[in-house]
Amino acid sequence: MLNIPDKRLALQAYEQILELIQKGEIRPGEFVNERRLAELLEMTRTPVRDALLILEGEGLLMRHGRGLQVRQMHIEDYMDALQIRSLLEPEMARMAAGRIRTEELASIRARLESLRATELGARADRATVRSVDEDLHDMIAEAAGNPQLGQIIRNLRRQTQMFDLRAMPERLADTCDEHLRIVEALSSSDVDAARDAMRDHLDKVRDSIIQRLTRR
Predict the structure, then answer these.
(1) Which pairs from 143-150 meet CB under 8 Å and 24+ separation?
(2) What is the mean pLDDT of the chain?
(3) What is the CB-side half-sphere exposure of residue 53 using CA atoms within 13 A?
(4) Distance separating alpha carbons of residues 137 and 164, to the nearest angstrom
(5) Domain boundary residue among 70, 102, 124?
(6) Is the dihedral of CA 66, 11, 160, 89 positive or negative?
(7) pLDDT band at 30 (very low <50, low <70, confident <90, very high)
(8) Cα–Cα distance between 202 and 194 in angstroms, integer?
(9) CATH number of the domain bearing residue 20
(10) Measured distance CA(144)–CA(64) in Å, rounded
(11) Residue 136's pLDDT band (boundaries 50, 70, 90)?
(12) Residue 203 and residue 4: Cα distance in Å, rounded?
């Protein structure tokens, strides 16, 4: 078992490697090199090795022989994961309604409105978009009060990021509007509206992907 300092270093390495994958600096299908990552992150190999094991456990890395490879997410895998999210996340939003502090929701609302305004004039920074999206979903997961459910959904969300707003930049304005409706339902403590707003958001994500694929 890891002691506290080692665990902190492993989690720090995990977050940094995850960010490299999310940014596309380590691409799907690419093998990860423990020694090179340790040099890049300026760490010893032990926390990097522990971080890679966590990412493997979450399904973001796949083992091939003695090496680890960034998972290539096929459309069938994505749609399966999205279907599971559609079953779980609306219920989690329902559980979270009325349990999030007003100031937290106000902050998320302001950030979403700022992104929405930015989209009208110039392309928003991808890191900012991802940050707001993750903060909203993490806030809902924490407020729902079921850590295991939150972790399952968090893993699914990370696996499906290959089809996020980088792949569908035209979805930015709609995504902001859908998130704002979720925030409004959470703010009003309307459990049914929160559930329905989350379900509507995920349905629209699915429909957009299907439309994109059928246009090819």
Answers:
(1) 143/95, 143/96, 143/99, 143/100, 144/92, 144/93, 144/95, 144/96, 144/99, 145/95, 145/99, 146/92, 146/95, 149/88, 149/92, 150/92
(2) 86
(3) 10
(4) 14
(5) 70
(6) positive
(7) very high
(8) 13
(9) 1.10.10.10
(10) 37
(11) very high
(12) 41
Count of alpha carbons within 13 Å of 134, Cβ hemisphere only? 17
Please state the pTM of the whole predicted model: 0.76
Enclosing domain of residue 191: 75-215
- 154 and 92 in a single domain? The answer is yes
Tokens of 207: 């429909």
Tokens encoding 161: 């990021």
**Residues 100, 10: one domain?**
no
How sure is the predictor about 140, in pLDDT bands with cuts at 50, 70 and 90? Answer: very high
Q: What is the pLDDT of residues 44-56, one digit of tens each?
A: 999 999 999 988 9
Residue type at 170 in one-letter notation: E
Split into its structural domains, the chain has a count of: 2
Report pLDDT digits (tens) over 104-131: 999 999 999 998 887 554 556 666 777 8
Q: Are residues 148 and 83 in the same domain?
A: yes
Q: Quick: pLDDT tens for 174-207.
A: 889 999 999 999 999 999 999 999 999 999 988 8
Secondary structure of 149-189 in the HEC alphabet? HHHHHHHHHHHCHHHCCCCCHHHHHHHHHHHHHHHHHHHCC
